[in-house]
Amino acid sequence: MINPSISEVFTADAGTVSALYPGGGTSPEVEGRTTLTIAYDATNGSYTITAPQASQVFRAADRDTASSDRRITRYVRTQGTVTDSLVLTKAGESGILTNRYVGGGIQRRTDTAGGIQNNRLNVFTYGVQTANGAVPITGTGTFAFGIIGMEAGDDVLADFDGRGTMQVNFASATLTGVGLKITRRFNDNGYAALDQSVFTLEGVLGVGGNALSGSIRFSDAAATLEGRFYGSAAEEVGATFYGANTRNQMISGVLLGRSRSTPGYETLTDLVMPIELQAYTAAIFATRNAGTNDYGDTSLGSGGQTSFLVATDPRSYKYFYDLNDGNRVAAQSDSRFTTYVPASGQMYRIYNPGPGNDELALTYTGFGLREMRVAGARAMNETFVFGLETGFSQLPLSGQASYRGVVYGSAIGAGSNADLFALHGSAAFDFDFGRNAFTGSMQPAATNTRTQVTTDLGTLTFINPWMPGAAMMTSAFAADIGGPSGTTGRITGRFYGPQGQEVGGSFSLVTPAAGTVLTGVGVVAAVRR
Questions:
Q1: What integer is the mean pLDDT of 419-429?
Q2: By the 8 A CB rule, do 339 and 328 touch?
Q3: DSSP secondary structure letters along 55-117
Q4: Region 81-97: what's the mean pLDDT?
Q5: pLDDT band at residue 94, thresholds of 50, 70 and 90?
Q6: To the nearest 10°, the Cα dihedral for 431, 435, 436, 439?
C-alpha cells in the first residue's frame, strides 16, 4: 500500500448510506452492504471507484490539498449538479489511520438537482488481506485503531474521527473494543473545537476464514461493523460501519488498526490539526512603583475562561498574541518552559508537554505563566491551564486514583512597597470516583524575585471538596484552600485525557508567609500514578 508504483484493482468491503436535505438528514433507503472496486492507475495517478449509483474517476488534478492532511487525501470533482468527493487514508508504518497493508475510503456523491440535496455515501476498506489459514486460532491480540466517518445532522452532514483499542480473542473468535469519537467544529481561523463521546464495539470472527462482524454503538446511534484482517500474519485490521440513530439519520465510516498494546490518542504534542481549547485563568493585579520593582495596591482578578489555540509541527499557540518561533526567546527557554515575548511588556512562559520535560511529562494538560508590564496600565501576573479535557462520560464511575504533579505561580506581598514572589512546588490529589470525593494538598515555596530568598509555605490542603462527577455531567472539581491561620483560597480544576489520566487547575491564594501576607495565583498539573 506504500508508494504504489503499479496499476492495481482491489475489491473492497463496502457499505452504503444516504441522507436528504431538506428532510433533516433522514435516509430514504435502508443502509447496508454494497459492491465496490477501487482501481489505481499508476500512469496518471488516478483512482476509479466503481459502485452502484456512484461510479467516478478521481484524477490527480482533483486532489484538494487544502482539506487533505497527514492522515488522508481528499479529491473533489463537480459536474453539473453532482459533486463527487473521495477521502482515502494514506499509507504508512506508524500513526493512526496510516497503515501498511490496509486502506480506507469514504466516497460521497451529492446531487442538488431540483433544490434537494441528495447524499449517497459509500465507505470501504481494501488492501492486502490475510490468507484464511494465516488468521490465528489461538491466543489474543490488541489492535490500536482509528476511525473516520460522516454522520447526518438536522441541517448538514458532519465529519468525525476517533481512536480506540480492540481486543481480539482468537481462541473464542470474539472481539470487543472501546474508543473516543471526536467531532471537530471549526472556527474562522481554521482551528477546531472538539466534541468527544465514548463508543463501544463487539463482534465475532468468521470460523475457518478471514472475516469479522459485529456492531459499534455510539452515544446516539448504532451501526453494523464488518471487516477482516490484513497483512501476512494479521498484523492489521480494517472494517466498515454503517447505521442510523433513532431519528433515521445515518452514520458511517471506516475503522483501521494495527497490532499494538496502547491506542494512539491525540496529545498536545501530536495533534491531527490545529485545535481550539479553553484556558482557565487566575490573575493578580498591582500598581508598579515608578523606577522600582516593587508593587502596591494588589488585588486578585476574578478568574476566567477564554479561547486558547494550539498547533503542532511546528508547535505554536495563540492566546491574545501569536506565540511561535518568531517571538520565542531561546535564552530564556529550557526543557521545562518555552518563553515568548510577542510584544513590548508581554511575556509568556508555557510549560513544555511531552517526555522531553525533565520535571513532569504532561501528555494532555498544558499550562503557562503570563506577565504584563505595559506603561499606563496596572501590572498583571496571570496563570492559565488548558488541554484536552476529559468528557464527563469518560470518567470512571468507581475506584480510586492518585495524581502527583507540580505547582507554579506568582504572589505579591502586602503594603505599598511589596516584593514579587515566584511560586513553585508539588501537588497531590487522591480521588474516589465511586464517592465523588477527593483529598489533596500542595507544598509550594515562594522565592522573592528581588532578594532570591526562598520561603517554604508548608502544606496547603484542599478542603470542602466539590466533585459532582459523571452523574452530574461534568469533569470539573473544586475546593477551598486551607493552611496557616489567615489562609484563604480556592482551586478549580478539570480532568484531562481520554480516561482522565491527568488533572489541571487554577488557584488563588492569600496566606501569611515570608514576613508578609502573600496574595497569589497559580496552576497545578498532575499525572495519574
A1: 98
A2: yes
A3: -EEE-GGGB-GGG--SSEEEEEEEETTEEEEEEEEPP-SSSSS--SSEEEEEEEEEE-GGG-E
A4: 93
A5: confident
A6: -40
Q: How many other CB atoms are found less than 10 A from the CB of residue 379?
A: 18
Tell me the three-class secondary structure of 130-165, residue by residue.
CCHHHCCCCCEEEEEEEEEEEEECCCCEEEEEEEEE
Measured distance CA(72)–CA(88) in Å, rounded: 6
pLDDT per residue as tens digits for the range 370-403? 999 987 789 999 999 999 999 888 888 899 999 9
Phi-psi region of 171 (alpha: psi -120 to 50; beta: other; left: phi over 0): alpha
Q: Distance (Å, rounded) from C-alpha 281 to C-alpha 209?
A: 56
Task: Give the pairing type, strands 102-111 and 117-127.
Answer: antiparallel
Query: How many whole angstroms from its chain centre is CA 195?
Result: 9
Helix (H/G/I), strand (E/B), else coil: 470 = helix
pLDDT tens digits for range 28-84: 787 899 999 999 999 999 999 999 989 999 999 999 998 998 899 999 999 999 999
Instruction: With beta carbons less than 8 A apart as the criterion, state whether 308 and 384 touch.
Output: yes
Whole-angstrom Cα distance, residue 75 to residue 266?
A: 25
Q: How far apart are CA 265 and CA 394, in angstroms?
A: 14
> Dihedral of CA 521/359/367/352: which sign?
positive
Question: Which of 210, 258, 237 has its CA nearest to residue 92?
Answer: 258
Three-state DSSP state, 294: coil
> CA-to-CA distance for 509 and 411, rounded, in angstroms?
9
Distance, in Å, from the CA atom of 88 to the CA atom of 74, rounded to the nearest integer, reads 7
C-alpha cell at 324: 511561535
All domains in the chain, ordered by first residue: 8-259 (2.40.160.90), 275-528 (2.40.160.90)
Look-up: residue for cell 523606577? 291
Residues 6+ positions from 420 with CB-CB distance below 8 Å: 293, 294, 295, 381, 410, 411, 412, 448, 449, 450
Residue 512 is placed in which grid cell?
501569611
Kindly list the strands in the beta sheet with 117-127, ordered across the sheet, starting from the edge strand earlier in the chain: 32-34, 13-21, 117-127, 102-111, 82-89, 72-79
DSSP string, 365-400: EEEEEEEE--TTS-EEEEEEEEE-BPPGGGS-SS-E
